[in-house]
Structures are given as structure tokens and as C-alpha cells.
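so my prof wants the structure for this chain in the C-alpha cells format not the other one, which i didnt know existed until like an hour ago. anyway here's the sequence
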Amino acid sequence: MSIPVYASAPFNHAKADAILRTSDSVDFRIFRLLLSLASPFFETLFELPQPPEGKPEDTEMRDGLPVIPVSEDSKTLDAVLRFCYPYTLTEKPSLGHSKTILSKDGVKIEDAINFEDNVKMLEAAKKYSLDGAEKAIRTTLFTTINLETDPLRCFAIARQARMQEETVLSARYSLRTSLVPDWFKEIEMITSTDILALWAYHKRCGVAVQRLQLDFSWIEQHYNNPTAAPWIFGNPSRRQCGCPRSNIVKLFDRKHLVWWEEFMETTFQTLREEPCAQTVYDSVEQTIEKVRELKCRSCTPNVATVMHQFGDLFAKKVEEVISEVMSLISSPRRCDNVGRQVKFFSQ
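here's what i got, hopefully its the right format
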């Protein structure tokens, strides 16, 4: 067993009245009053009857102070205790954000230390009822950057911590990823039931957005008539369009351009696996490049402008459909096959 060492300032004060000993044998000299004021957990702990003076048989003592063992390591305890102390005595811990570096071949290598440390801090903050610390750590963990780059890790953390709002938010961001994720450490924090529920939600969203392909009324309602979107049909200007037209009539009872039809087909295929607005925007950019390569005098000059505008419409409709799915699985009145997902998201 290693010999305990004292923590650094401010947790080495000579006038402290108790010691917290971490799992890695670091002793934190603390003031009971400060911890009691910040945490109901510590308030209750320090109100427990103390052994009679001179008879501390069941309590280890060091330098005349009772030693209370805790399960956290020193790095975690140092961080959460700083939330208990006033600003005049210590700085709040620097939680930071996820860092990403690039390897020599340009592959992203994510710094997982931030996630691991913050998960430990979050668990400790919840254990000790430190609401301010928990809020700060949650804000750090569930930033837009983390949700976009690591939605499944965020989902696993939120699910394990029973944070409903963050669980739902992470599930929404996970729609940008494949149904079959790569292994990541935090996946061990959740059960197979959690993963299956997430997959069911993912699949339900992928199926739901397909109805936009079956009925183009949302496009017709937006443009009202074909003259408002001439670029879809090959006559956006007086310049002659040499792009081929489809033989299938789907919009305004008119034949539209093949490249637009291919854009729609490809996008909806990808939306089955990644049902989110970003899928639309990615497909828009690919189509713009494709049309530019055609060097059509009619289509090429304005393709970026018109496709970006149409992409905004398309993405908005996709998000509306996904929001409807989320409202269904979040409703406590749902009792059909979605019931398992309702229970999952509300637990």
C-alpha cells in the first residue's frame, strides 16, 4: 500500500478540519463548512456522529484530523472540490473542450482524455450533489463540436448518467453516422438494449424521410408553379440547355433534368442510412461539382445558387420529419411498437 501524500494548494491548508483520501492515496485537507455549504451530501456526511474524543477506533487519523476515504482518484476529486471553494481561494477547474489532431496521413486522432476525465468528474458531481459542477461539466461534454464529432460517445455518456435531454440530443446527432459504429470505449457504459433502441430510432427516421420522395407536393407548394424553378426543367434562361431530361414526370406534370433526378435519388438513398440535414447539404455540394463538369451554358452558371437554395428547403423538410419522429418516441401516450423507445428515452 502506497504512503499517502498531501494534495497541493488549496487542499493542504494547515487549519483544515478533515481529510479526504482518494483511491490513489492523496490526502486532501478540507474545511467541512465549505463542503457542507456546497453539497447536501457532505452536509449529511459531516453531521453523522463522530467517535468520542480519544477513542477513534473506527476512524483513521492523520495529524489529528479524521481521514475519510473516497472512491475518486486525486485528479477527479481536485476538480470537483474546486467547485465547492470560493473564487478567492481557488480557480475553477479548466474542463476544456475536445481536441483533435491530424496524423501524418491526415487521419483524425481524437484526444479521448477530455472525455474520460469529464465523465469521472460528472459521476463525482452527481454523487456529491454538486449541481453547479454537474451543469458545467454537462455543458462541456455536450458541446456542438463534441456532438458532431462523437455523437455516439455523447449518447453513451448521457444514457449512463440518465440525462434525458442530452440522450435525446445525442440520438439526434447520431443520425449523421452509420448504423454500425466503430468500437469506442464508452460503448461499455451502455447495454445492448440501449444500442438496439438507438438503432430502432435511427431506422425509423431513415424510413420516415422517404415519404418526401413519394410526394413532391412540398416542392410544388414552395415554388407554386414551374416558372419559379425553371432550372429543374432545363430552361432557367434563354441559353439553350443540352442536359438530358427524364422520361418520368414527377413535378408540376413536367419532365425534369436527369441530373436533378439523380440528385434526388442519390440523396434519398443516403438518407436511409444517415437521415439528417447534413446528408442533404453534402449531396448538394457533390451535385454542384457534377453539373459544373457538364459545362452546360444554361445550368452551370447558376447551379450553386439554385442548389443551395433548394438544399435549404430540402434540409428543412428532412429536419421537420425527424422532429416528428422524435415527438412520437418521446410521447408518454405511445403504446405501439414505439413503446420500448418511449420507455428508453424517458428513463
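also thought this was worth mentioning. The mean pLDDT is 85.
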